[in-house]
Amino acid sequence: MNRVRCIAAVLAFALSANAQIDAPHWHGSESEWRRDTPCLRELKPKNGCVDMRDGRRVCRQSPSAEGADVITIVRAGRVLFRWKLGMAGDASRHFFRADLDGDGAPELILSTLEAVSNGYAIETVGVDIIDGRNADARPLHFVVEDFDPRISFLRAPASKRCRLFATEWLWTSDRKRGAGDYLVGGWLDYHAGLLHHTKSRPVLARRRLYSFDREMEQGTGNIYEWLRDPRAEALAAFVPEDDSYKSKPTIQSGVLQSIRDGKVIVAIGAEEHALELDWVRIVDDRTGRLFPSSYEPGSEVLAGQKIVIRSTGWPPEKYSEVRIRVH
Predict the structure, then answer these.
(1) Confidence class of residue 168 from pLDDT cuts 50, 70 and 90?
(2) Do 61 and 88 form a contact (C-beta atoms < 8 A)?
(3) DSSP state letters, 16-44
(4) Lower Cβ count inside 10 Å, N or C end of the chain?
(5) pTM
């Protein structure tokens, strides 16, 4: 899918001459990840609130029919955090509980349906994770596509950890068929307000061909089953987006100042620039894998890092593209 956004990337995509997709193929275990099972438990809030085990109460309220939802975390009468989410009907917002990091203190997960695309009816879902142990940690936020409680968080056999399986649609090009849409999914571990790519698992990608279309239209299976199909590819890094139509980029150095409150602040020389979070993508330089869209960690883990900015326009506007490599 083509996207209109700025893309921030901590980036290193290797190429494989024999691959269909221009990304290195996976050479690890092909069996372990096929045995994962769902690990989310949906909660039924009372008056819009759910209680956590350490005395925190998390409430989701709609001030008005036309206003954004407000999330409030309270403990012992003190407001710890409050933030706004997009509007959502009752059927499009959910609370879940799962021990994501396996420490015995389960996290609280909120999902919000933000948009549904025309044509393929792809669902864009915002996810907020509230740490189960550290009440002072800011909630972590990100966005995925076609979130499904049955497969978006999975547990490996004999593991205490519940992993995120993040999915999205990417428009890319392969050497045999040219440009096209791919369903892509990858595993990430959660710990202390941060996501970490699961290096022992591949990135899965399946092109949307007629056979895949028929499966989706017939409603047979789910996203995880579609990506476990033999026609899906197992990759070591994320699928690079097709940029063959783009103009030659400019490259400049800077510093990443912060990712917070829906903004990514970067410094170029003496000037600071604020980028909208939903224009930005971050990629793990060690693995070449994308973090989910609109990734806002619960801590300033990337603040102060030197960056190399690769852009097709500066300062960036809503319809320009920027890639940022963080060292």
Answers:
(1) very high
(2) no
(3) -TT-SBSSPBP-S-SSGGGG-EE--EEE-
(4) C
(5) 0.86
